[in-house]
């Protein structure tokens, strides 16, 4: 065979190889794409969360898996009595306050919500709570409310408005949701929200005293009249400091109210039966 013939033959073989490689490449890409699709899963964390919250019929089970916990964390700062007005007076005055507060176990996802004990997730949360019930610390594992209520006379400072504040003690258990579906969802039946091993799902178990009332921090707050703080307080209470409503608003914590606010902590032993 001549040299030119060999060159032409070699060129034809090279072109055939190149064609074969070009045809094979998309096949590899398609196979990789199928693998990615199967591993992605259609049950996104938000869908898993929604299905667990709604106790969806698609679920075989939904469990809260605990990862870490913190005892004696404090809940929100709440105003738990009507506001008593001593504005314009240069002396103190004694007022009687009707105080009431209640606590319940809550589950906080991205949007935050409470979970009934009758659903799959609620049962799991109840069982996890059993791990944190000790002789020293009693907790509320179910969704029933526990109440602190009393009447008490206290001193309102001169030219001030007085009311009671409360922040309950709780055991903060954090972890993630594990959902098991009855039928495969894009090749899988087990999915996690927000992810396996995460600590962004919180279950707050209120801590309870031996006498059955909630444990926490209680304090009497005095706010100076004719200040920005007093104006916000009056507006929140319906433009009347004498209002008996407990308008919900964000309140600073104990000792964090600023120069126009005075806080005095009240021991719970003074207002609860032993």
Give a description of the structure.
The chain has 274 residues and is α+β, with helices and mostly antiparallel strands. The chain has one domain (45-270). 25% of the residues lie in helices and 37% in strands. The chain contains four helices and twelve strands. Strands 1, 2, 3, 5, 6, 8, 9, 10, 11 and 12 form a ten-stranded antiparallel sheet that branches. It is elongated. It starts with a helix and ends in a 9-residue tail after the last strand.
Distance between the termini: 112 Å
Number of domains: 1
Percentage of residues in DSSP E strands: 35-45%
The best one-word shape is elongated
Class by helix and strand content? Answer: alpha+beta
Spell the H/E element sequence. Answer: HHEEEEEHEEEEEEHE
Number-wise, the strands total 12
Largest sheet features: 10 strands, antiparallel
- Average pLDDT confidence is 82
Number of helical stretches of at least 4 residues: 4
**Poorly predicted parts:** 5-10, 12-42, 239-248
Mind telling me the C-alpha Rg?
31 Å
| Fraction in helix | 10-25%
Region (Disordered): 234-274
Biased composition (Polar residues): 237-247
Descriptors for this entry?
ten-stranded antiparallel β-sheet, single chain, 4 helices, 274 residues, alpha+beta, two-stranded antiparallel ribbon
């Amino acid at each position: 065979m001549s040299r030119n013939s060999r060159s032409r033959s070699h060129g034809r073989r090279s072109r055939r190889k190149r064609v074969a490689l070009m045809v094979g490449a998309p096949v590899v890409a398609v196979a990789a794409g199928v693998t990615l699709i199967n591993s992605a899963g259609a049950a996104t964390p938000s869908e898993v969360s929604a299905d667990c919250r709604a106790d969806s019929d698609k679920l075989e089970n939904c469990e809260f898996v605990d990862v870490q916990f913190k005892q004696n964390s404090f809940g929100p700062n709440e105003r738990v009595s009507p506001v008593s007005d001593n504005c314009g007076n240069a002396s103190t005055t004694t007022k009687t306050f009707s105080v009431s507060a209640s606590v319940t176990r809550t589950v906080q996802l991205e949007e935050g919500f409470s979970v009934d004990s009758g659903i799959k997730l609620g049962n799991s949360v109840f069982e996890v709570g059993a791990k944190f019930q000790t002789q020293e610390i009693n907790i509320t594992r179910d969704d029933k409310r526990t109440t602190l209520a009393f009447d008490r006379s206290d001193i309102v400072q001169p030219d001030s408005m007085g009311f009671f504040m409360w922040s309950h003690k709780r055991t903060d258990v954090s972890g993630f949701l594990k959902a098991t579906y009855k039928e495969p969802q894009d090749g899988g039946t087990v999915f996690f929200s927000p992810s396996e091993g995460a600590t962004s799902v919180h279950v707050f178990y209120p801590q309870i005293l031996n006498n059955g009332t909630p444990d926490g921090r209680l304090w009497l707050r005095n706010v100076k009249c004719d200040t920005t703080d007093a104006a916000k307080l009056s507006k929140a209470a319906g433009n009347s400091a004498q209002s008996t409503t407990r308008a919900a608003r964000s309140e600073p914590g104990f000792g964090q109210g600023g120069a126009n606010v005075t806080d005095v902590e009240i021991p719970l032993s003074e207002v609860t039966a032993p």
